Amino acid sequence: MNPVQWYCYTTSVLEKLNRNSTSCCQWIQCQKPPAVVKEQYEVLCLGLKGAGKSTALASLVGEPIDDIEPTTGFNIKTLPILDTTLNIKELGGGQDVKVFWNKYFHGQHGILFVVDASSNEQDLRSSKEALEAVLSDSALKGVPCVVLVTHLDTPERKTTERLEQLFRGTLHGRKWMFQPFHLGNDEGIRQGLETLVDLMIRSG
């Protein structure tokens, strides 16, 4: 093979390699799996002042829980639960904030309502009345609700079963669940949110 023939042969081979390389790259690019987009749900976290909303959410995301001040406006947490993303908006439970709760009801997929198990009977009635007012709003018709029971490590606590009996009638007509939460262990709120995700999916 003379030099001219060798040059033509080499050029031909290189062109084929380049074409094959391009095809290979194109094939790899075509076969790249699409990005997974998680289903997103909007969740309202409500409850009376001092019920433990901020503490429970901080525990879940690994934030310090010492000296947490009560929420005076709202607090937002976005986190993955199961195969979804939850956008959790915690609203303050003080009387000056409660009057604005209904401004945030539209577009919500689930409710996380926090109840202090150490509350006296009057505060428990106030908590029940607050939940009744929330769930009676037409914007939340059929929206599932998980009740997170906190302060279960105190001597004056009521049992989760006792609270479930008290609130059962308020929750009638929707999917709901009671979930205990123990300070220092985020398993309770994580299980509660996983249950809420399941209820929201089934409410579809």
Number of helices: 6
- Run of helices and strands: HEHEEHEHEHEH
Strand content range: 15-25%
- Poorly predicted regions: 2-18, 20-30
What is the spatial order of strands in the main beta sheet? 2-3-1-4-5-6
Helix content: 40-55%
Shape, please? globular
Radius of gyration: 27 Å
Sheet/helix structural class: alpha/beta
On the 0 to 100 scale, the average pLDDT is: 84
Question: How many DSSP-defined strands?
Answer: 6
Cα-to-Cα separation, first versus last residue: 74 Å
Outline the secondary-structure elements.
Layout: H1 3-31, E1 39-47, H2 53-61, E2 74-81, E3 84-91, H3 95-98, E4 110-116, H4 121-135, E5 145-150, H5 160-167, E6 176-180, H6 187-203
Parallel strand pairs: 1-3, 1-4, 4-5, 5-6
Antiparallel strand pairs: 2-3
